[in-house]
Automatic annotation (TrEMBL):
Molecular-function GO terms, alphabetical: hydrolase activity
Species this chain originates from: Streptomyces odorifer
Superkingdom assignment: Bacteria
Protein name in UniProt: Carbon-nitrogen hydrolase family protein
Keyword annotations: Hydrolase
Entries under InterPro entries matching the protein: C-N_Hydrolase, C-N_Hydrolase_sf
All copies of domain CN hydrolase, residue ranges: 5-244
Keyword Hydrolase tagged: yes
PROSITE patterns cross-referenced by the UniProt entry: CN_HYDROLASE
Gene3D superfamilies: Carbon-nitrogen hydrolase
Sequence similarity: Belongs to the carbon-nitrogen hydrolase superfamily. NIT1/NIT2 family.
Amino acid sequence: MTSPLPICLVQSAARHHASAGALDAFAADVRRITRTHPGTRLLAFPELHLSGHRPDEDPGEVMRAAAEPLDGPRDAALARIAREAGVWLVPGTLYERGEDGRIYNTAPVYSPGGERVAAYRKIFPWRPYETTAAGAEFVTFDLPGHGRVGLSICYDAWFPEVSRHLAWQGADLVLNLVRTPTVDRAQELVLARAHAIVNQVAMASLNAAQPDGIGRSLVVDPEGRVRAEAASATEQLVTDVLDLGEARRVRAYGTAGLTRVWNPFEEGQAPLELPLYGGRIDPARWRAGAGSGDAG
């Protein structure tokens, strides 16, 4: 049995990285939200929420100025904010200066105990416009008593391999942190539902508010039904209470009680060659993935 998971997605414009006391202002935001929504367990913000730039600023200069090592002072401050609020905190994504000297677009996660429990580097930067280095690992983290969450960032949602691997690694919910100001947000809404359906996983697509994004954040259940959504680009909170065990139920019994996408192979079926990847789907390995929590 899993416990209900109250979530709060903060559809907000970005905090300017150079603003005096930006982290203090962020901490105040977190306190205000958790005070008005005291049951929240998972609190999330959009892509680059703490690394915004003004129209007259060069994005590359902002990126270089805002980047710091993952375990720097910013990390300690965010861990403290999570601990003081008593929530699982996803503060959006940050510019991380890696040990290799390159800059990554990274989503950290902090526990209510004030520990960083995960950090995901965006695998698919939006080329050629985004110049951050590409990450190379799929990342999930566990919410004890609730289930497993996978992380993706904005353009990652256009590549089915990301959500597929997160679901295969046992994710019950994929949290996609977005900063989309362009008209293709309409397609992203379709992709969120499609990923939920074909992977039998809940999806939460959290976009920034205007002027950084055009909003329309949404939460989708493992059968593709929209549970909650923001109909506009204004700043607002999208709240829901999820049962992450629902993903495992859908995988076991099928979408609409029929379709079991994680069990399509007959016993003894030969591996399926995948020329695009120079690899294959091994039926035994496929079955050992989603829902087991042991893959990775």
